[in-house]
Write a structure and sequence with these properties.
- The protein is an alpha/beta fold.
- Helices cover 31% and strands 16% of the residues.
- Strands 8-9-7-10-11-12-13 form a seven-stranded parallel sheet, sandwiched between helices.
- β10, α11 and β11 form a beta-alpha-beta unit.
- The longest helix has 22 residues.
Length: 504
């Protein structure tokens, strides 16, 4: 009891001393040259980011000058995201005893330099993570905040990099800049095999021995979380007919955390329904039912699904999309039923709040698969995109038929890749058959997106076969069943997983 009292007293004294030191800052301590008082243009900020990406292969706002950071915020409604804590890994509020005091201290600094009431400054304080979104208009405020020992990161919260990137194709498998599409296509008969009771097993499944693995596991009892654009209300196989045919005794839950508004203060989401098409395709390849409808079956056709509409499309550009993804990860992290998370969206460089959300879910024991990147050859210089580039995620990319070291035409590769999925045919160039946005229709989907959802499905087969295993055991089994194990290819990781070996 005495030790606890001493620790509490020390903590209070430490915070009081820190507050006294940092709150003593005043504008006379900060001098900004005349040249730095005019913000850079949005394109100038983007150019600086691109220079870092091309020379270092990465970009992080912590390496940017305060002038650049401020300039970016000016072009993003003056919104700033602040990650705070006692050290770089202090992101979880439940494990941070002084988070309320630190947050109050930082808000006091902002009020001092902005001269505004708290209600005009604070947009949102995350309930699970040590981060908050605020409005900051003065460059001096950012300089003062960056001097605080409690700052983990400060980033512009609504700078839309991709909106400035007209010359860069941001396409996913759908062929549009957003990865969205509601197309339906008649499948080539050579791209599937009909399996009982009358389902189509995609050609790519045979590249990974998935149909043979079904003799041992179909994913029953495992729940996969899909962070994407939601699930179609017009595809009953991912709704009222989720349990049909050989798929039974499982559940699908749909949530929406994306706010479709230009205003950061808006909080009303637009619901769980997919308005893009991408999320529906990912849910389909992971766990579509195996029935007699004559449509493509999913890898883990007896697994449960929890889907999140976290963004409007696959390019996580802007405040509400990045906030939605962060909220989806924290929600899935708090869902004890979820073992696997699959996300086939991303950004070219790191986003602090998404990184915190991913780490939060990872620390809850989730096995997280993320897409390595899908684009034209012009942007493959970026390598593995974020958050697949994080240590807490498993990065997946797509390769051509019959290979594990020939990237698909639009797939990124790099040292962070763990696994590959054969998803592009050599002759026709066709990709992976999936159920479409509408009932009784099918389509093709490709890129690292479908590779990621496929791998998440294989992981569900393994975990269902070994329900007492930990995340590490499942991941190790996937590695041991892949092409290059025990070595690791410098661009393609462990290569293609043999699902049959993985479940034996």
């Amino acid at each position: 009891m005495v030790n606890r009292l001493l620790k509490t007293t020390f903590l209070l004294l430490f915070l009081m001393a820190s507050c006294s030191k940092e709150e003593s800052l005043n504008e006379s301590n900060i001098v900004i040259s005349e040249a730095q008082r005019t913000p850079m243009s949005a394109m100038e900020v983007k150019t600086k980011i691109d220079e870092s990406l091309q020379t270092k292969g990465s970009f992080n706002w912590k390496d940017a000058s305060t002038h650049m950071l401020w300039s970016a915020s000016v072009h993003g409604q003056n919104i700033i995201t602040i990650g705070f804590g006692n050290n770089s890994n202090d992101f979880d509020r439940s494990k941070s005893t002084n988070n309320a005091a630190v947050q109050k201290q930082l808000l006091t600094i902002i009020q001092q330099y902005e001269g505004q009431a708290l209600s005009e400054i604070l947009i949102n304080a995350d309930p699970y993570l040590n981060l908050m979104d605020v409005v900051i208009k003065n460059q001096e405020t950012l300089i003062a905040l960056r001097q605080s020992k409690f700052i983990r990161y400060i980033e512009p919260g609504d700078f839309k990099y991709f909106a400035l990137s007209d010359s860069i194709e941001k396409s996913d498998s759908s062929g549009t800049s957003s990865g969205c599409g509601f197309d339906a296509t008649t499948l080539n008969v050579s791209d599937y095999t009909t399996v009982t009771p009358n389902a189509k097993a995609p050609w790519t499944f045979y590249q990974h021995n998935i149909p043979s693995a079904w003799n041992y596991s179909t994913g029953a009892g495992v729940t996969i979380g899909i962070v994407d654009t939601g699930t179609s209300p017009n595809q009953t196989l991912l709704g009222s007919n989720f349990n049909d045919g050989l798929s039974s005794g499982r559940t699908i839950q749909k949530f929406g955390v994306y706010v479709d508004s230009i205003w950061p203060w808006s909080t009303g989401t637009d619901g769980p329904n997919d308005q893009c098409g991408h999320g529906t395709s990912m849910a389909s390849v992971a766990a579509a039912p195996r029935n007699d409808n004559g449509l493509p079956v999913g890898v883990a056709y007896n697994a449960n699904l929890v889907t999140y509409r976290a963004a409007s499309n696959v390019v996580l550009d802007g405040y509400h999309e990045q906030n939605g993804v962060k909220n989806a990860f924290t929600a899935l992290g708090n869902n004890n039923n979820v073992k696997i998370i699959s996300m086939s969206m991303g950004h070219i460089f790191s986003v602090g709040k998404i990184s915190d959300g991913v780490k939060y879910a990872y620390n809850k024991g989730k096995l997280i698969f993320c897409a390595g990147g899908t684009s034209t050859s012009f942007t493959t210089f970026v390598g593995v995109i974020f958050p697949a580039s994080m240590a807490e995620t498993v990065a997946v990319t797509g390769v051509k038929e019959g290979t594990s070291n020939q990237a698909c035409d639009v797939c990124h590769t790099g040292g962070k890749i763990e696994f590959t999925v054969a998803m592009q045919r050599n002759g026709s160039g066709n990709t992976v058959p999936v159920t479409s946005y509408y009932d009784n229709q099918s389509d093709y989907v490709g890129g690292s997106s479908v590779a990621t959802a496929t791998t998440a499905g294989i992981a569900a087969l393994v975990w269902a076969k070994n329900p007492t295993w930990t995340r590490t055991q499942v991941l190790n089994k996937l590695r041991q069943s892949a092409t290059y194990y025990p070595a690791k290819n410098s661009e393609y990781g462990y290569g293609n997983i043999n699902a049959l070996l993985a479940v034996q």
